[in-house]
Design brief:
Layout: H1 4-26, H2 28-38, H3 48-76, H4 80-102, H5 106-126
Length: about 130
């Protein structure tokens, strides 16, 4: 169990992004509706469905790579998939942070930073 910290963070990232992706996929209309109001006064106001689709794809990639990375660490101490899962997680979170800042939702942006800290630590440890 030399990699327990990395495994726990990858599980955290997998749960975070797979649950979020699941919610976006199965509650698409509600998410689009809410986000159109959230971004009504931003340059993204007419791009909400496309932006949401991009985030959904990145979240699913992040979550799946994190799961595979966790398995890889357990099976053969490999770090490739976990590293890319952490990198994709960071990119996804940066995109979400950009959107929250654009919408002037500073509390939402602050919350994303809480998720970014373990994701960036995972990039560091798995590199």
């Amino acid at each position: 169990m030399n990699n327990i910290t990395s495994i726990l963070i990858l599980i955290f990232l997998a749960i975070t992004f797979l649950q979020s992706g699941y919610d976006k996929l199965f509650n698409w209309k509600d998410n689009v509706s809410w986000l159109q109001g959230h971004f009504a006064k931003t340059p993204l106001k007419n791009q909400v469905p496309l932006a949401l689709a991009n985030i959904l794809i990145l979240e699913l990639i992040s979550g799946i790579l994190s799961v595979v990375g966790c398995i890889e660490l357990l099976v053969n101490n490999g770090r490739v998939f976990g590293f890319y899962g952490a990198v994709f997680s960071c990119v996804t979170l940066l995109m979400l942070l950009f959107g929250q800042r654009l919408a002037k939702d500073y509390d939402g942006a602050r919350t994303i930073v809480i998720y970014f800290i373990p994701a960036i630590l995972a990039v560091y440890w798995l590199n």
